[in-house]
Design a protein that fits this description.
CATH architecture of the largest domain in chain B: Alpha-Beta Barrel
CATH class of the largest domain in chain A: Alpha Beta
Largest sheet of chain B: 8 strands, parallel, barrel
Number of domains of chain A: 2
Strand content of chain A: 15-25%
Number of strands of chain A: 29
CATH topology of the largest domain in chain B: TIM Barrel
Number of strands of chain B: 14
Shape of chain A: globular
Strand order of the largest sheet of chain B: 5-6-7-8-9-10-11-12
CATH superfamily of the largest domain in chain A: Glutaconate Coenzyme A-transferase
Structural class of chain A: alpha/beta
Distance between the termini of chain B: 41 Å
CATH class of the largest domain in chain B: Alpha Beta
Radius of gyration of chain A: 23 Å
Strand order of the largest sheet of chain A: 18-17-16-15-19-22-26-27
Order of helices and strands of chain B: EEEHEHEHEHEHEHEHHEHHEHEHHEEH
CATH superfamily of the largest domain in chain B: Phosphoenolpyruvate-binding domains
Oligomer: heterodimer
CATH topology of the largest domain in chain A: Glutaconate Coenzyme A-transferase
Number of helices of chain B: 14
Radius of gyration of chain B: 25 Å
Largest sheet of chain A: 8 strands, mixed
């Protein structure tokens, strides 16, 4: 067993005091704990500096002799399935988040395990959502020891206030794949919600009433978990086509009435922001991409579903039409806006990580040029390349950016966990990374001297676009040269920061951190980039 | 909202707004007492970062207003900026009958230039005068003007509060290259508005529902009385009734400060008892009358607003018809409208191309001392030359020609 896989076991005896383990300053100048949930950590060494050797982890060998020759792996209930999987205290249970805030399976799996008396479980979701609030009760009662995965809403607050017994471990989508394949996290039981599945365990996310598009986030779990349970509310006759998860990885299949609330899984249609400030930033971003010469035939970009990472699309689309430019491919977060561009021939293909609305679900189901990707193909840093670095331009959000272009995406200035990392860290590998942010929120400037939590090193962040101007990282002299003569408001970041502080009545005076680490932020290579400190209740 | 039962001391006043849907504003409460000033913060979204700064600012504002007793409470701060905090405190104190003839101004970061009589006024963005959240970034969208509105967008009970907030905004917010306009209330309330805002040097005052030249003269006189320098403050009367339209020329010539006439179609159609349509046939005559009166008086004619900010195609069509009638601009109720409006009032490319040729021919004729301008085999009449010169100058001002200076929005 790899040493760092003892997380759950180590965590079982962890007390709050144990969080005050030795703090080490990493290569980014941040103080991080040497031990997390009892496991020894490698502090961040710099971008591309950490090169581990050895072999990937592997799932145990199984024999067909132990599975029915009919292929029918159905279990009568999730409880039976967990029992047959050998559920016991301290195990790691994983789930995926393709059903987003409509997911019922994450909570159900843990509640069922709790009802069976299991204690000190480690929950390892690909992300958690406000719908998973009941897990707080399971943590209070000792059934769940801690969560390793993004936390926001009530769970984020619970963790931030130091009420979770173990420490949170926040990873990017690519980082989660890396942690599983490198053996840092060993999954005992993966409970994978599937909008369609057959009795053998072949499964997809593109069909059925709970359709969510891709199932890419569940692929690492299916491949590496010691035991894989597929849970579906849409059992189809063998073969389930297409199969995004191959039944050969699956131990058991459970049929339930409902895996999730369709209304919360995908939206009917994605709404474009009406905020004048966001639209202005989006327009600046599009013009920047054009003026910097990035918008050229065959270029590629990453889009998302929220705020400016969606709102720049109509502007770019107009420019592409006017100039007769076609993108080679786009990475999603797919929405109807991206689908329209694909269908108009403005994009060659959509390489999709998450499918956000019904139009996008239809497209990924019917259009062979719209394909589901996985964190392996797109994001995994410990692989032989990834799509993220082949993208010419990516537009992302952030909660804070500092004058060295370091950025935060998991906490606000009050230090409370509010967002997951998602694919954000992985997307920083793009040729040009643009953070589209308002210059301040509720009086608190977004541009600071130092970010509260470091999630992205400044050397990977090229441009910060606000409604008051655009700052280019001085490391990118090529971009500064490319936009010379542009009529965009391009300004030094210090200049922007001064203007914002004048407006807000001075720089904010953040409280001194508690230096009690309730969670850590991992970098894409598994090293510890920063810690999240306990905030006052 | 707060519990009124807790407000028992002798005299309690409040100003501002609270609640989860409120952004960038705050609710403050002032209770008179004979004890020295006390400042407290009940709730603030930014307390960990700016709590001390807010308390200090509150003490400073009270000091400037010469208030040395009483209890001031920041009941609910929703991330208000300093100019708003100062305005709400001043309003609460004034409502308690204190701080008369004093003002507490927030920090100023820039000096604001005067504007030219004949500058571009294609778009003017309306900003509700009592809502601080919309005005902070209003100068970023490229509008030719911003209007801080004290009239229809402000509830009767909040006129005093809006006046102080608008004054502070004029003092401290950078509206970029936009002309700084204030729409005052109808007289006589509008004269009180003027007393408060004029020292903060708005570029232009809009007078609503004007029906007589006397109203304009009253505003002109008050501007002259309040201003202590000769920097221009322009006037734009809004004609919003049948009577106002009938007296358009009289009104247009009532003061040298007038630079433009504009029309308010919501009130005008209500006055006529007709439905306001998206194409505006019912107000065709009134708008033509206004255009003619404005031109006769040497003023700009500015159109009303287009009320559906989602319908950008309807707006573009309205704008093109408006330009064809002789208007040179209109109001905007959402920043999205600005770009559409600018495009609508820009010269058609074909017209501009022809005008450039005529101007080139005119320059050539001037150089060669010829009295007659000709283009190819055709002679160009003097009024055609004049119109071409005007169009080219207009296009240059809009930044549509390469040698135009400062075409960018910032």
């Amino acid at each position: 067993m790899n040493e760092s896989t003892g997380g759950a076991t180590g965590g079982r005896t962890a007390t709050r005091e144990s969080r005050f383990a030795e703090l080490i300053e990493n290569a980014a100048g941040r103080r991080v704990p040497a031990l997390v949930n009892g496991a020894v950590q490698t502090p961040f060494r710099g971008v591309a500096a950490h090169r581990p050797t050895g072999n990937k982890a592997a799932a145990p060998i199984r024999s067909c002799a132990d599975y029915p020759t009919s292929g029918d792996k159905r279990a009568p209930s999730l409880r039976d399935a967990l029992e047959r999987a050998g559920l016991c205290d301290g195990m790691t249970i994983s789930t995926h988040h393709h059903l987003r805030n409509g997911d019922r399976i994450g909570t159900l799996a843990l509640q069922t395990a709790a009802a069976m008396g299991a204690r000190d479980l480690r929950w390892f979701p690909s992300a958690s959502f406000p719908c998973h609030e009941p897990v707080i009760g399971l943590m209070d009662k000792g059934h769940v020891h801690h969560i390793e995965g993004s936390m926001n809403g009530p769970l984020g607050r619970y963790c931030s206030e130091g009420r979770m017994r173990g420490q949170g471990v926040l990873r990017s989508h690519g980082g989660r794949w890396q942690a599983i394949q490198d053996g840092e996290v060993e999954i005992d039981i993966a409970v994978l919600a599937a909008p369609s599945a057959d009795f053998f365990g072949n499964a997809n996310g593109s069909h059925g009433r709970s359709a969510c598009g891709s199932l890419g986030f569940a692929l690492a779990d299916a491949t590496w978990a010691k035991h894989v349970i597929v849970v579906t509310d849409n059992l189809v006759p063998f073969p389930c086509l297409p199969w995004q998860i191959q039944g050969n990885f699956v131990d058991q299949v459970v049929v339930v009435d409902s895996i999730g609330d369709p209304a919360q899984i995908v939206s009917g249609t994605t709404e474009m922001t009406k905020s004048p400030d966001r639209l202005l930033i989006a327009e600046y971003v599009a013009r920047f991409i054009r003026d910097a010469g990035i918008l050229r035939d065959g270029f590629s970009f990453q889009a998302g579903a929220g705020g400016t990472s969606l709102a720049f699309l109509p502007y770019v689309k107009q420019m592409m039409r006017e100039q007769g430019i076609r993108a080679g491919f786009a990475r999603g977060g797919s929405t109807r806006y991206l689908v329209e561009m694909l269908e108009e021939g403005l994009i060659g293909a959509i390489l999709d990580g998450q499918t956000f609305d019904l139009e996008a679900v239809r497209s990924i189901r019917d259009n062979p040029r719209h394909v589901a990707t996985t964190p392996f193909t797109s994001y995994n840093y410990h692989g032989k390349g990834h799509f993220a670095s082949m993208v010419d331009v990516t537009v992302l959000g952030a909660t804070e950016v500092d004058v060295d272009f370091n950025a935060n995406v998991v906490t606000h200035s009050d230090g409370v966990l509010l967002h997951g990392i998602g694919g954000w860290q992985n997307c920083l590998a793009a040729g040009c990374t643009i953070l589209a942010v308002p210059s301040f929120r509720d009086r608190i400037p977004v541009l600071l001297d130092r970010v509260t939590t470091l999630c992205g090193p400044g050397e990977l962040i090229d441009v910060v676009a606000t409604e008051r101007g655009i700052a280019i990282n001085p490391r990118r002299q090529d971009l500064l040269d490319a936009v010379r003569g542009s009529d965009l408001p391009i300004r030094p970041i210090q200049d922007l920061k001064r203007e914002i502080e004048a407006l807000c009545g001075g720089a904010p005076r953040p409280p001194e951190p508690s230096y009690d680490p309730v969670a850590v932020v991992k970098w894409v290579d598994g090293t510890v980039l920063d810690a999240v400190w306990r905030t006052s209740v | 909202m707060h519990d009124p039962a807790t407000t028992s001391p002798p005299h309690v006043t409040e100003a501002g707004r609270s609640g989860d849907d409120v952004k960038a504003d705050l609710l403050v409460r002032y209770a008179t007492s004979t004890d020295p000033v006390e400042v407290g913060i009940e709730r603030s979204k930014v307390a960990p970062f700016y709590g001390d700064a807010i308390a200090q600012q509150a003490r400073d504002v009270l000091h400037e207003l010469d208030v040395s007793t009483g209890q001031l409470t920041i009941v609910d701060d929703r991330g208000a900026l300093p100019f708003t905090i100062a305005a709400r405190i001043e309003c609460a104190v004034r409502r308690a009958g204190l701080g008369a003839h004093r003002r507490s101004l927030p920090a100023r970061h820039v000096r604001f230039p005067a504007t030219a009589r004949d500058r571009l006024r294609r778009s003017r963005l309306y900003l509700p005068g009592n809502d601080p959240k919309l005005c902070v970034n209003a100068g970023l969208y490229g509008a030719d003007g911003v209007i801080l509105d004290l009239e229809d967008s402000v509830h009767h009970g909040a006129k005093d509060a809006a006046r102080i907030l608008v004054r502070n905004a004029l003092h401290s917010i950078d509206f970029g290259t936009a002309e700084r306009m204030v729409r005052i209330n109808q007289l006589p309330l509008g004269l009180e508005d003027l007393d408060e805002v004029l020292p903060e040097q708005p570029n232009l005052v809009l007078i609503p529902k004007v029906e007589s030249a006397d109203e304009v003269r009253a505003v002109d006189a008050r501007i002259g009385a309040v201003l202590d320098d000769d920097r221009p403050v322009w006037i734009m009367p809004i004609l919003e009734s049948a009577l106002g339209i009938e007296r358009a020329f009289d009104i247009a010539t009532a003061s040298d400060r007038i630079v433009a006439l504009t029309i308010g179609l919501e009130d005008y159609t209500a006055d006529l008892g007709v439905r306001k349509t998206a194409t505006g046939e019912e107000s065709q005559w009134a708008r033509e009358r206004l255009v003619n009166a404005a031109h006769a008086a040497g003023l700009q004619a500015i159109d009303s607003v287009y009320g559906d900010f989602q319908d950008l195609d309807g707006l573009a069509a309205w704008g093109r018809r408006s330009r064809a009638l002789g208007f040179t601009g209109m109001g905007c109720i959402h920043p999205r409208q600005i770009r559409i409006v600018h495009a609508a009032y820009a010269p058609e490319p074909a017209d501009l191309e022809r005008a450039l040729k005529i101007v080139a021919a005119f320059d050539d004729a001037q150089r060669r001392g010829l009295g007659v301008v000709s283009l190819g085999s055709k002679m160009i009449d003097p009024p055609v030359v004049q119109r071409a010169l005007k169009l080219v100058a207009e296009a240059r001002a809009m930044g549509l020609l390469p040698d135009a200076h400062d075409g960018a929005c910032r």
